[in-house]
Amino acid sequence: MFNQNENSAKKWRFIVNPVGGGGAVRKHWLEIEAQLRVAAIDFDVVFTERKMHAAELAELAIAEGVRHIVAVGGDGTAHEVANGILRQTTCPPDEVSFTLLPIGTGNDWVKTHQVPKSTKKWIDFLQTGKIAHQDAGWLTYQINGETQKRFFINVAGLSYDAYVVKRSEAYKDRLSSKIFYLSLIFRCLFEFKIPRIRVVFDGKTVEKPLYTINLGICCYSGGGMQLVPHARPEDGKLALTLAGRISKLGVLLVTPLFYWGKIGWHPKVSLYQVDEVLVESADKQPVQVEADGEFLGEGPVRAGILPKALKIWVP
Fold this sequence. Notes:
The chain is α+β, with helices and mostly antiparallel strands. The chain has helices at 6-10, 20-38, 53-63, 75-87, 109-113, 119-128, 160-168, 178-189, 248-260, and strands at residues 12-16, 43-47, 68-73, 97-102, 130-143, 146-152, 155-159, 196-201, 204-216, 238-244, 269-274, 276-281, 288-291, 294-314. It is built from nine helices and 14 strands. A six-stranded antiparallel beta barrel has the order 7-9-8-12-14-13. Helix 3 (53-63) packs across helix 4 (75-87).
């Protein structure tokens, strides 16, 4: 039996991924912890040891009475902690405040909410921030023929995006280099075969070869790309981007649009706002899926929205 008391409810629990940012978290954590103590932040800390351990640690913290949680790492750590908050049954998820101390490879979630990356500025933000709420997405997908469920708080990707994320798992220690990540993206471009996919949403069916599919709560992913530029974190809708068959040269030429938030200018790209979506293969090639930069599995994939489900701490 865990002791739930007023002190634990006020304290921040830091869930630290020591291998985050290609090992940057492990390298800098003692220095960061010292700065937190100098600033008189009321906190304690636990460390992750394996994949999805951060979700378990978030559930445990809430069961102990903790109601303020910081994920320390990158978007993957934020993804895991948010899943722990959203799937636990101790209290309503919106009773738990969440934020990220960004020491990761992409740090895309914080771009939407303008959470500072400098440790000094971040500590000031933790002391002076405010409560907001954002939507969360949910996904069901397949692993070895079994249906699994996961929540996401930033962007989910299918087809090419998921292929890149799966390939990147072999290079975790090098992804902090933006140049390396871009080179991996373009290497994958020449390996990837565009599948024919069926997408069903809001009474509409699209069936054709799709280079990539993105579902957005927030708009940044992949180290600053805006593949769902129409995403708004509190509008109660999933932003859906469908990109049809684009040549390899065409992808290279339009890459700047990914960063400028102008992907919708391309004639092969369609942008939608949806409540729920089904994505499934329309040929023999499976549809793969990732969420918040974490590879999950294969389709068929169903996705939907939980309006303002996550309470967040923002500047």
